[in-house]
Amino acid sequence: MSNIEAAPGELTCGAGPAGEAGRVQVLEAREVPLGGVRAMSVRRTLPQRRRSLIGAWCFADHYGPDDTRVSGGMAVGSHPHTGLQTVSWLFAGEIEHRDSLGSHAMVRPGELNLMTGGHGICHSEVSTPETTTLHGVQLWVALPGEHRHAARGFQHHVPPVTVLDGATARVFLGTLAGETSPVETFTPLLGAELTLDPGARLTLDADPAFEHGVLVDTGSVTFAGTALAGTELGFLDAGAAKLELANTGEGPARVLVLGGPPFGEEILMWWNFVARTHEEVVAFREAWQSGSDQFGAIPEVPGAPRIPAPVLPAVRIRPRGNPAR
């Protein structure tokens, strides 16, 4: 979706501080009112001052469950992206996606939609009239320098349900629990939904070259012995060959597992753009405002008009990153 904050912050994102080996850093979500026509709010765990990336994962918004009869649902009109891939994953509801590559697809629970907006793409996202509850996550992946101007792309994948001892897994990116996703990415990544039965304990093989994050959707768990609940995100530095998870609540617990090798480049994020310099952001914004072919175009969706870019800050963007190592 679009980051339609009225005054989006500017961030330089780079490799985070080296954590204590085997120790989980707990990151709290912040409530972000997106504003715009629908005034939708989300819980954002990435980026933030304490950590801006997990591997190449650079953005994580968690929303719902929302009663669309009250909230009005999602109606995000045409908006641009550069230098990234968007990963849409739903737990409940249905969203209609259209982009300037010509893709027209539905986002449904348990199904991955991955869109590449390297050089430039625009798209819209609107929940369907049949949707009464909307619940999911929107994730972004930063593209490495050699691929950050990649052509527009779109991939759809329905991962199988992998049955584990006391849990199920849907692996939508990378490899986990013996399942490998066929979806192509520009850096090694892991993305999976795990649902743990009450009392379940899991120990899963992991790539020690990866950083890992566990985002709690429902219930409460421990991740490498550290308690997580609500919408907290637990971060584990690279080096772990096993991922240990346990459901500590009375009902099922659902989490997303994210991972990837530390992203060795510094990036700048402003609004819907991933860039490297202030000048690039200015150019991207001007291109969108002027209707440049860089982003292409899609037909306007009724009730979801094209989203103009916010006003740039009055001073040169001086983004902030993770604390120094």
Automatic annotation (TrEMBL):
Keyword Acetylation: no
Keyword Cell wall biogenesis/degradation in annotation: no
Superkingdom to which the source organism belongs: Bacteria
CDD domains: cupin_pirin_C, cupin_pirin_N
GO MF, one annotated term: metal ion binding
UniProt-annotated binding residues for Fe cation: 79, 81, 123, 125
InterPro entries: Pirin, Pirin_C_dom, Pirin_N_dom, RmlC-like_jellyroll, RmlC_Cupin_sf
Pfam family, one: Pirin
Cofactor, free-text remark: Binds 1 Fe cation per subunit.
Residue ranges constituting the Pirin C-terminal domain according to the UniProt record: 192-291
Signal peptide: none
Residue stretches spanning the membrane: none
Cofactor: Fe cation
Protein keywords: Iron, Metal-binding
The Pirin N-terminal domain, residue ranges: 41-141
Family named by the database record: Belongs to the pirin family.
PANTHER family with a match to the protein in the record: PIRIN (PTHR13903:SF8), PIRIN-RELATED (PTHR13903)
Name by which UniProt lists this protein: Pirin
